[in-house]
Design a protein that fits this description.
CATH class: Alpha Beta
Number of helices: 5
Organism: Methylorubrum extorquens (strain DSM 6343 / CIP 106787 / DM4) (Methylobacterium extorquens)
Number of domains: 1
Number of strands: 9
Protein name: Electron transport protein SenC-related
Keywords: Copper, Disulfide bond, Membrane, Metal-binding, Transmembrane, Transmembrane helix
Family: Belongs to the SCO1/2 family.
CATH topology: Glutaredoxin
Shape: globular
GO molecular function, one term: metal ion binding
CATH architecture: 3-Layer(aba) Sandwich
Radius of gyration: 21 Å
Structural class: alpha+beta
Strand content: 15-25%
Largest sheet: 7 strands, mixed
CATH superfamily: Glutaredoxin
């Protein structure tokens, strides 16, 4: 006779599966959100890409190698997140002082249909001049988004226009194009600058 205090096998199996699922999710979140050892290539965040800058010149990950850099995905028609983030980055660069020259910054448009090199150049003139705007063909942009494990999706509007959903993460990459971690801009610029100065 089975003890009334001992759970039946039919209860234990689903419970074990549930606990295992929670553990797997927790591990995945830690691996995603906590900076790991720098890595690049298909198994990590970052790797080869080819785009065009705001001056119309072709650039790749090799143009960013040699110095740590920040990379942020957005678009010029973004109503609030993108201009706010770019201003925060500009404030951090100012707070870094001379050390800012050790850091590169790239703003990658996820809206190549509207964001030409010329429009990027005009848009970025409102922010720190060290921020480089990058765009390209839809295929080049999609490949770069995938390389950085980012997200971008065109969302139609009610008036025939459209907006872009996209990853709002600011990536910190090392001098070898390896992912270091996400940059926290939701604090005073001086605090973010102090943390970055230890890595550049």
């Amino acid at each position: 006779m089975r003890s009334p205090l001992r759970p039946s096998r039919s209860v234990l199996l689903p419970l074990a599966a549930f606990v295992a699922g929670l553990v797997a999710i927790s591990v995945a979140l830690v691996m995603t959100l906590v900076p790991q050892h720098p890595q690049s290539g298909p198994s990590g965040i970052g790797g080869p890409f080819t785009l065009v800058n705001q001056d119309g010149a072709t650039v790749s990950e090799r143009d960013f190698a040699g110095k740590p850099y920040l990379m942020f995905f957005g678009f010029t028609h973004c109503p609030d997140v993108c201009p706010t983030t770019l201003q925060q980055i500009s404030d951090v660069l100012a707070a870094l002082g001379p050390k800012a020259d050790r850091l590169k910054v790239a703003f990658v448009s996820v809206d190549p249909e509207r964001d030409t090199p010329a429009s990027l150049k005009t848009y970025l003139s409102s922010f720190d001049p060290r921020i480089v705007g990058l765009t390209g063909s839809p295929e080049q942009v999609a490949a770069t988004v995938k390389t950085f494990r980012a997200y971008a999706k065109k969302v139609p509007g009610s008036s025939g226009d459209y907006t872009m959903e996209h990853t709002a993460l600011v990536y910190l990459m090392d001098a070898r194009n390896g992912f270091v971690g996400a940059v926290n801009l939701n604090r005073p610029a001086a605090e973010t600058a102090a943390e970055l100065s230890k890595r550049i």
